[in-house]
Design a protein that fits this description.
With about 110 residues, the chain is mainly beta. It is about 0% helix and about 40% strand. It contains no helices and nine strands.
């Protein structure tokens, strides 16, 4: 029998969520005290210029922290710039891409 030995604080503080290129889920109900919230980040750069995923039964909010990106979902394409945000309903396929290395997008993903 395995018991969870992580302290409550270890399940509430998540560091270096920006450290991974591409899409990375940092906080989920499985590794945190959050019961319904997941948080991730999409960081695109010269080596990783796009990320694609399906959000399944989760709604998605994208906030562009820096750079510029194109988000394609439900047959539509949206150009986003710094501090733009968008909502994407559940059961959606999502493609995020950038063309310019000088304006690499950095999204927190909720």
């Amino acid at each position: 029998m395995k018991t969870d030995t992580a302290s409550p604080q270890e399940k509430m503080i998540f560091r270096k969520t920006h450290a991974h290129a591409g899409r990375h889920m940092a906080v989920t109900p499985e590794n945190s005290t959050m019961r319904h919230l997941a948080y991730g980040r999409i960081r695109l750069d010269a080596g990783t210029s796009s990320a694609s995923f399906s959000n399944g039964d989760r709604e998605t909010g994208l906030i562009l922290l820096s750079g510029a990106a194109t988000v394609s979902t439900q047959g539509k394409e949206f150009a986003l710039g710094q501090f733009d945000a968008m909502y994407i309903p559940r059961d959606s396929n999502i493609d995020v891409s950038t063309k310019s290395q000088a304006t690499s997008p950095n999204f927190p993903l909720t």
